[in-house]
Amino acid sequence: MKRIGMGLIGPGFVAAHHIDAVRRLGDVDIVAIAGSSQASAERKAREYKVDRAYGDFNALIADPDIQVIHNTTPNYMHFPVVMAILAAGKHVISDKPLALNPEQALAMRDAAIAAGVGHVVTFNYRGNPLVQQAREMVAQGAARGVNFVHGYYLQDWMTDPNVYSWRSDAAKGGATSALGDIGSHWCDLAEHVSGLKIDSVLADITTVIPVRYSAGASAEAFSKENKGERTPVKVTSEDLASVLLRFDSGAKGSFSVGQVLPGHKNDVELEINSSKLSLKWRQEQQNELWIGRHDQPNGLMMKDPGLVSGEALRYTHLPGGHQESWADAFTNIIRDGYAWIRNGAAMKDKPAPLPTFDDGYRSTCIIDAMLKSAHAGGVWQRVHYMPVGKK
User: Fold this and answer.
1) Start-end ranges of CATH 3.30.360.10 in the chain?
2) How many CB atoms lie within 10 A of CB 190?
3) How many Å separate Cα 121 from the centre of its chain?
4) Which of 169, 199, 356, 367 lies most in the core, judged by the most C-beta atoms within 10 Å?
5) 125-320+363-373 — its CATH code?
6) d(Cα 137, Cα 391) in Å, to the nearest integer?
7) Which pLDDT band, with edges at 50, 70 and 90, does 226 fall under?
8) How far is 310 from 129, CA to CA, in rounded Å?
9) What was the pLDDT predicted at 202?
C-alpha cells in the first residue's frame, strides 16, 4: 500500500498528539512541520524528530511529498491556513473550533466539499469506545424517548491569573474562550451520542479573572511556565458559562463549562436520560459507562470487546481490564480520517463517528447562538445553521 505524506502547521500543545497518532498508524510518513518562524519550526522539528521544517506554512502546503495537512494553529489562523490547503487540493485535519465565526466556518465547509478532499475536525471524544457504545444504545432504542441531556466540561489550567494564553486574546482566540475551546467538544458529544440537534440556547457567561498577567508570550495549554516580568492584560472572553438547551425533538438540556475551577483537570461528563434508562459517561473514568434504571439495579458497564457492539467494538483495542486512554480515542479519530482519505474521501463512505467540517461549522453556529443569548441579557436564541446544499 502506498504511503501517505503528512505535514503539520502550528506545532503547539496538541501537535505532539497529532504526530503521535499518525505515527501509530504505521502507513503515514511525517514529512514536515511549519511554525511561526524558521527557527521555531526547526526547534520543533528536532523535538518531534521530523526531517523538514518550514517557517512559512505556504511552503509546507506546496511540498509535493505531502498529501494530508494537519492544522493545529491558533484559532485566528484556521481560516487562512485551511483555505490555502483546500486551494491546493490537499486533505486537511483541523483542530476545533473550526473558525472564529459561522461565516468563516461555512465558507470552509463549502470549499472542502467543492474540493472533494477529506476534511476532519478533531472532536476526539467521539473516539472513545464507550461513547460509541452509548450512541449505539440510543440509536437501537435502548434509551428510547430521550428527554434530558446534561453535563459539563470543567478544567483548572487557567485558574492562576499569571497564565495568559492566546485563547484570552479576542484577536487570536475569537470572541469566546471556554465555550469555543471546550464547550464545542461537549455540544458535539451531546448531539453525536443523543442523535438530537440543539435547536435553541439560553446562556449565562462570565469572566472570573478579568485581568491576566502576560510575560510577553502565550502559554501553551496546561503549561506551568509562569516566569518573567508580567504586564496586566484585560480579558473580555468568558472563562465560565452555564447554558440551558432545547433540542429539536423537544428534549431539554443544560451544561456548564469552566477553565478556572481548581481540581478539575479535564473533567468531561455527559448524561442522557430517557423514559427507559439513563446513560452517563465521564472522560476521567472513560472505561466505564453508568447505566441507570428505575425498576432494577443500576449497572456499570466496563469497556470490554466481549461486551460492546457496533463502532464501539472497532474502537476497542485491548481486552477488558486493560485501560484505554485519551490518546487512544484521539488515534481512533485520526485512523478513521486516514482510512476515509485512502478510500477516496467521498461523503457516502465517511465512517459514521468521523467529524467533518460540517460538524465544525455546526459547532460554531451553536457557540455563536450562546454568545448572542448572553449578550442580549440571557434570552433564548435559535441556532442558525445552513445544511449542506442549501442557500
Assistant:
1) 125-320+363-373
2) 23
3) 7
4) 367
5) 3.30.360.10
6) 35
7) low
8) 10
9) 98
Query: In which residue ranges of the chain is CATH 3.40.50.720 found?
Result: 4-124+352-356
What CATH number does the domain located at 4-124+352-356 have?
3.40.50.720
User: Who contacts 141 (Cβ-Cβ below 8 Å, separation ≥6)?
Assistant: none
Q: How far is 62 from 44, CA to CA, in rounded Å? A: 20
Average pLDDT, rounded, for the chain: 95
